[in-house]
Write a structure and sequence with these properties.
With 366 residues, the chain is α+β, with helices and mostly antiparallel strands. It is built from 4 helices and 20 strands.
Length: 366
């Protein structure tokens, strides 16, 4: 009986203990846990609001060298990466004559030879008669003019045939259109042709074959695009910082010199083209086509009171911060403030707090 009574009492005590423990546990869980926040103070700082435009580096002057005559590439004297001077020969074109033009030129030469022989014979006979004073000086001078014209026509016919067959004549060798020359001083960026390739001259229906691309790599520009929401805040003459992907840890100065008056829609956004003159040292090799980012300062504030933007509460058109009133436990008072420019990390404060105030920041622990 005593044993049964003991176990009964022990059971009741265990049930009572579990009931009390459960009550205490639930009570503790129902109590709000103390939240600890980081405390920040306003500081005087320089703020800059920037925008970034993506684009490429390219030479300002990039010239496509095209032939002035159609034919086949006979020789290529230069290759990409070489420097050339204006007038320096890049390639040579061999002319393939058109059959109709060739027949016409050969026929013209044969007729010119016939006329020249006849004119020489007539002039020789009239000259002898003039010396014997059997004809007048006027007739002699007319015969002399005729033979000179026949000789000139023969030379012209020979030159014409040579031009049709070879693209050049002896009388105009220095102006040969078969020698393709660079029109500017610069670096050859590309030579897309090879020996044996057919090329055509530029005409009304065709742009012509590009023999080489030559550019002045000492005068580079950045060409990129900027969103319409920011294009109204930039202007020609603004400083630009360039970062080139292929040249890490290097930045270059540039000056904005062009903003397109017309936007282009891309992927649902309205973008405007911009150009900036690049100022790069001669010791750095920058290649045409390098991708680059241009950072443009839209707004700048010097020595302004600023706080982390994450500590600001935005409510409609108003902004608030929470000022520390008690440290243990932390208690705060909501304070309305006036803010200004933000650089994405810090925001300028125009009024509502002082540099001595302590502000609630991010949560440290729950």
């Amino acid at each position: 009986m005593k044993t049964k009574k003991f176990f009964k009492i022990a059971g009741l005590l265990l049930v009572a203990f579990l009931f009390i423990w459960t009550f205490v546990f639930l009570y503790q869980k129902s109590q709000p846990e103390e939240v600890i926040y980081e405390i920040v103070t306003p500081e005087v700082a320089d703020l800059e609001k920037t925008t970034v435009a993506t684009g490429k580096i390219e030479p300002r002057d990039e010239v496509l060298i095209k032939p002035q005559i159609s034919g086949i590439i006979a020789e290529v004297y230069k290759e990409a990466g070489e420097h050339v001077k204006a007038g320096e020969v890049i390639a040579k074109v061999k002319v393939i004559p058109e059959l109709g033009q060739l027949n016409s030129a050969e026929s013209r030469l044969r007729l010119a030879e016939i006329s020249a022989r006849q004119a020489e014979t007539d002039f020789s006979r009239l000259k002898q008669l003039y010396e014997e004073q059997l004809i007048s000086r006027e007739e002699y001078e007319r015969a002399e003019v005729s033979v000179k014209q026949a000789r000139e026509e023969l030379l012209t016919a020979k030159d014409n045939l040579q031009i049709v067959k070879e693209g050049i004549s002896q009388s105009n060798a220095s102006f040969s259109s078969t020698l393709i020359r660079s029109t500017i001083d610069g670096l050859i960026l590309d030579v897309p042709i090879k020996v044996g390739n057919s090329v055509i001259m530029s005409n009304t229906f065709n742009d012509g074959t590009t023999i080489a691309t030559v550019a002045n790599m000492n005068d580079l520009i950045f060409r990129g695009k900027i969103d319409e929401t920011e294009v109204g805040r930039i202007h020609e003459g603004m400083s630009v910082k360039l970062t080139i992907g292929a040249l890490q840890n290097l930045t270059f100065d540039a000056v904005l010199e062009y903003i397109s008056p017309k936007g282009v829609e891309e992927n649902g956004a309205n973008l405007f083209e911009i150009k900036a003159a690049v100022n790069a040292p001669d010791s750095i090799v920058i290649r045409s086509g390098y991708s680059a980012n241009a950072e443009i300062v839209l707004e700048r504030l010097k020595q302004t009171l600023a706080i982390p933007e994450g500590s600001v509460e935005f409510s409609g058109d108003s902004t608030f911060v929470y000022l520390l009133t008690t440290e243990q436990p932390q208690q705060f008072r909501r304070q309305q403030i006036e803010v200004g420019m933000s650089d994405g990390i810090k925001i300028a404060v125009k009024g509502g707090i002082t540099a001595n105030d302590r502000i609630r920041g991010n949560k440290v622990s729950d």
